[in-house]
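Standup notes
- DV: blocked on the single-chain target, sequence here:
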Amino acid sequence: MLLIYSDAPGNRWPYIAKLLIGELGGYAYKITNNQKEFIAFNGCRLNYSRNRITEDEFHIIPAGLLWEENISVQNIEVFDCKDYPAFFKSPVESNWPFDIFAASFFLVSRYEEYLPFTPDEYGRYPHTGSVAYINGFLHRPLVNEWITGLKKKLLNWFPALWSTENFFRFIPTYDIDIAYSYLHKEWKLNLAGAMKSVSRLDFRALTDRIQVLAGNRKDPFDVYEWLYALHLKFRLKPVYFFLVAEKRKDYDRNILPSEKAMQELIQHHALGYNIGIHPSWQSGDEPGLINSEKKLLECITGMDVETSRQHYIRMKLPETYRLLLGAGIKNEYSMGYGSINGFRASISSTYQWYDLGSESVSALNIFPYCFMVANSFYEQNFTPAQA
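- DV (later): unblocked, structure below
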């Protein structure tokens, strides 16, 4: 067991210690603020305080962030720490060159998103303002890399210190915000689409629409059987997020949930896959819609819905996550950017959301993503080979 000493008050320190040492590190550990207990302990000791207590301890000097109980602009100076970038550098020599706990807390809590920022065209936090993007490590799960490095150092320091290992698991996820390109839409929408193709002299799209509606060609968005075959071949367990807005408006353009074909598509996927809600764009302006859309999806599937991802990744901390918790959501998949691929929270592992606004650990499990096909195609203009 690893005994950790710290006199940090509040909820930030035990939260990040549990995530780094217990969940990512895989260590059995205990936290104490009793120096006598720490000194008397005959085993592996980590001291997370400003002053060294014993000679054979592993000492990490705090930067101070975990002692604070407010949200303020932080002085982030990134430096090269051999294998990875880091910040909150130790002011004097210690056994670890920076405050891994404070730096990790800053990243996974999305601390910077609670500070004033200029939103992008969709009202979202812009990736260009993030510490990760500005300092060139958005593509790296830095928190995971840090804890891997710390584990190696601790093993050298305490050869008898035992830990469990984490294993990689790939979870493909799909946002079904436009279930079909041409099928099952109102005739007025198909007519408007056809006229648009004519006005653009896009006769290929016009021909495709006519062929699909005549039953001579498969709808280009109907790839569900192909995906099923992929999942079966590679033994994957995907998550499907369905947008079930009851009216088409703004960016909500899916087949209406009142359509029998839409209901059958949802029910078919609910038989073998995890189904989640894809809260509509409208719910960003009318928060009550999150709960009603969730209940509608539950009515269609006959199952409880506890999983969610925001449409267009439209979210604001802490308000959006609080609304989802209030609606009964337990697992959230929006921790990524809708404008670029990368690790928004600099972590690749599932973790509990810390609500900085209330300084409390929530019951919401965050499943961060790092790659979205739409980002590669529409935002970063990648070729399939580059993606």
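- Follow-up: The chain has twelve helices and 13 strands.
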